[in-house]
């Protein structure tokens, strides 16, 4: 029986504070508490034997004189970093993950307050089913012998849009498409054609074995085995969802609906959303469905971290990487804020590309490739997030889990605070809140510039005012009496996201500067620095938990080939990597 909840309003407390305990599984944080300086390379590594873990590390726990250099160091334990690390560990590599925070997961982490378990960010889980090739979260867990119980969500999201347009995205595709056609009967053909192309792309994706598109033996192998599917993907790779929607649909309101469909997964409209990404999410929600992990999203990262350790690799918390160490232009290790150094054959950064090249390599000129990336992409806005515990009686029976609210004016879709995302995970998993209560996780886009230069008091007051206005809007649109039902409230600003997730300006990833050529300009995992790789949402295919999981799988495959754990052809590598680099300059 969960403990009773004290009525307590805590507006100013940052939403992403240290967890009180972790959901689902047992905690084995090897909080590094690094001591002393770096010293010479081998000694520095040898002295870094983590308690309880190094003994299990096989091939080199750290006794002096042994060669205990790691195969890979991963900077950051977001889902991108953890998937790269666990995939490599499953292939036999010895990996060290260094995480600045106290627990793994980054924006897919969790925290607990007064009996409530809150998801920090991610709450809508794609790729978590038991079928097909695109269930990348399920596969990532399986690779390290883990499986999580999931709760199928009967819908993906309930849209509440201008002109009282209400659309529920049912789990079953036919139910969704029939509901949409009932709202836009004159556009039946256009609707079926647009979503039909999404399915064509999704089915092509789902037929491939997903590995690194930067590894030629695999890529050519896939072209050989599935030529039609690969050509379909190559054809749609440089295209955007909005252009395809405009070909078949004329009704402006329906086109705006498709903008909203894209916005919730890309924070930009359909004309700026790559068609492959749109197809992935618009179909996986019906194919595998949206599935919520029992105990909360934080369980995914903790399960991956546990699995990683069981495979003989390591993860250290409170380990703030400040520099990537280069030797003759090659990345050979990292330095922490306390001066400790660790060395490895390869370094994988799960920090954003802005943080990786702007902070971890600040003394180096920005490589041309990164200039090209920054020319094509800007930082997506951050979020204002409100985590609330409310009395269950405020929600009408049958309330859906996820909602998207844009009240009066389509023009507000992409504006800061314009639209509201709302997740109520306790609809699926009541164990996340004390009995008789629900969790409301509310977020809206917000830029860091709005929150800079304020005194402490001004900052706290502003959080309170902005959060109350969002709550007032939800009260008016969805839940009368909401304000009075609140028993716990924590507000996070873009500064909170910057601080606790170590993300430049609190950004949630890259956003195209203008109209992109689909995914063409998005960099993969290799960088122009030998031995340094990036993973996460500033890599192909972009924002989203399943997207960063794919980037982790791709990255691990490329790294494994480079360190001799997977097949490779140096000649073909040089050709393909050069060709892909050239492609990106065309975007
Ligand atoms: N589905 C949803 O509802 C939802 C909501 C929010 C976020 N998300 C997604 O999650 C994605 C992010 O995943 P990700 O894996 O790219 O990154 P992430 O931000 O989740 O994780 C990065 C991790 O790296 C750590 N880190 C950064 N710099 C470091 C340093 N110098 N030293 C040590 N550690 C450092 C951070 O503390 C963090 O834990 C976002 O793109 C977003 O789309 C999804
Ligand atoms: C040469 C070359 C390069 C090429 C050739 C051709 C080929 C073969 C190609 C291929 C390709 C591929 C494989 C691709 C792949 C892709 C993928 C996988 C993708 C994916 C994607 C995904 C995504 C984007 C996702 C996203 C998601 C998200 C973001 C989510 C979010 C959510 C949220 C925010 C929530 C909401 C909430 C509410 C409403 C409450």
TrEMBL record:
Ranges for domain Amine oxidase:
79-559
Q: Enumerate the Gene3D superfamilies for this protein.
A: 3.90.660.50, FAD/NAD(P)-binding domain
What Pfam families does this protein's entry cite?
Amino_oxidase
E.C. number(s) listed in UniProt: 5.2.1.13
Q: What stretch or stretches form a coiled coil here? A: none
The biological processes this protein is annotated with in GO are: carotenoid biosynthetic process
- Reactions accelerated catalytically: 7,7',9,9'-tetra-cis-lycopene = all-trans-lycopene
- State its cofactor: NADP(+); NAD(+); FAD
Q: Which GO terms describe its molecular function?
A: carotenoid isomerase activity; flavin adenine dinucleotide binding; oxidoreductase activity
Concerning its family, UniProt says:
Belongs to the carotenoid/retinoid oxidoreductase family. CrtISO subfamily.
Return the protein name: prolycopene isomerase
